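Hi V.,

You were right to ask for the full record rather than a summary. Here it is.
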Amino acid sequence: MLNYSDRFWEKHIDPNVRHVELTEITFLDLFLQSYQKYPDHTAIFFYGMEYTYAEVEALSNKMANTLIELGVKKGDHLGICMDNCPQYVVAMLAMFKVGATLVQISPLLAPPEILFILNDSNTLGVFTLDYLFPKIAGLKDQSSIGFIAVTSLYDCLPMKPFPCLPFILPENRLPIPKEDWVYDYRDMLNQKANFVPQVLDCKTDVAMLNYTSGTTGKSKGAMISHFNLSSYIRLITARDYKTEFGKDVYLVTMPMSHNFAITQTVIAPLYVGGKIVMMAKFHPDETLKLMHHCRVNVARGVPAMVSMCTHHPEVEKYDLSSLRHWTVGGSPVPEEVGQAFFRITGARVVEGYGLTESTSGIFTNEWYRDQEERGFGKVFQDHDLRVVNPETGENVPVGETGELLIKGPTISIGYYNNPEATAKTFRDGWLHTGDLVRMTERGTVQYVDRLKDLIIVSGFNVYPGEVEDVLYKHDSVMEVAVIGIPDEKRGEVVCAVVKLKPNTSTTPEELIELCTKNLAPYKVPRVIKFVDDFERTGAGKIIKRKLRETMNS
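Predicted structure:
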């Protein structure tokens, strides 16, 4: 019988994948190496505006000096709530240089969700965009934040943007309020361009705090150490053995507030001296034009993005032959889409898997060989994994279903300020993923089901308990069960099955409005179904599996 401790899957990985020695070094050290090797290379391309490595280094040094003047110290927490833009990268690097922890805040979140993150993480200051400022400013008096730094997309756009103006751009730059706790990002760059970064402990100092949600709805901040981050980008670059240092071009299609995008399409290219081609938000027209014009080599996204580009009415007129692969997560890629994309580009659409707690995706299928088996691929080097009976914790034989456990250098050091959740999820060095999988004899891991009933909408995690908590605020709701149902465009959408209190009434529209006010758009139910009662276990627990079967039939 195959033994998980033997890492038998490694002998089935493409032999061209090189081994990398994971020394204790930070991503910031790796970025500085790129800056020294490629100072005049373009680091960021944003609608025709280009920033060289030397310019990004100087700008982040200036921002770091301002953060020191504002009293930011090593270990402090600072947030970024922005759509994709160069200022995001500069602020992130400045935080790492002063030893602060970056708290990732999605601009898609509703104010109550952002407020929870701010207070749970004790975030001291937030970088945001002018059109997002009211959302953040409205939370200041209820939160821990002492300052807000405001910038505009207009600050980083050329006179003639290519391929077009960002479609989310306000008609004009919005005014920045004159308050002593509000700082104009441009003024924060009026500093000297030299800075000596803080000395960091790779394995204990936290680079990023990425929030996820539990099945009870309570968010948890996964602490990603500097060693987690540097290990991740070195391992993924080793897996992609056709990486060309100083030459590769990466396209940013997903929100950089998501760990998938920030690690794989921003931090990884800065390590290899590559060019980051950035869009404020995904748009299929812009994506195809930028791939063609900038000769993009590497892309990441969710299956819906690939589908929209593949089925674009003008896709055939673009030369996409520079693309090596487009890696996706969140849901399976329809076989028809993958085949059509390969026919058009010669590049594979490759599925992968990861969690917030694993820094980013740490399983992928082969990028340069035909996929041998269905599944989301093999784990990165230097990682151990087990498939266990979730009740007993004992290994199950290869080929049988069990919970996936992972151990390795990219696994988070725990949840911030949450020892109970840390003890439950990170046991004896093993990350308990909550996902049910099977492993083949060649080491390919195949997804089976969600132990935690997680719903994935366009690559974003939605935890049913979080949505259920909002719906329970309605006076007419007696019981509710939230499930995911298949959706061709998004992979899944949220469905709420509701039992009302006697002699009360409401409408789907009213419940959806309640959710819209309290949740990010992707978490809002697309389907509301009313029932008289639920099928239950002997202990009275709602059987969600039965609900999914009913809704999907």
